Amino acid sequence: MGTTYYTEEHEWLVVDGDVATVGITNHAQEQLGDLVFVDLPDVGTEIAQGDDAAVVESVKAASDVYAPASGEVLEINEALSSDAAIVNASAESDGWLYKMKLSNPAELEKLMDENGYKALIGG
Length: 123
Hints:
The protein has helices at residues 26-32, 85-89, 114-121, and strands at 3-6, 11-16, 19-24, 35-39, 46-47, 52-58, 62-66, 71-76, 98-102. It has 123 residues and is α+β, with helices and mostly antiparallel strands. It has one domain (3-115): CATH 2.40.50.100. The longest helix has 8 residues, at 114-121.
């Protein structure tokens, strides 16, 4: 298992070598409520840190998911196209959104560890 990082916008990423798996935090899915649709980036898309990378839509609202780091999308979680609720059930494991090859690992220094994230959300 790689190192886990968090953003102030409630994304997480697990970095293993130069590949990161990205998703939204359990806290974020609790705030959104039941997800009904997930719009993921196309494989091969180059995204920059802070860019809109995906959209998660719940019965309450649609929310942008921002790229926690820059890189190229390698894979998307195909299971979410037919069952967005996987994110509700398992936001920080089976409900991952996409995997990317990092182009600038130094950007990770701007992100939080688990303790920093827990402090942010008052956990």
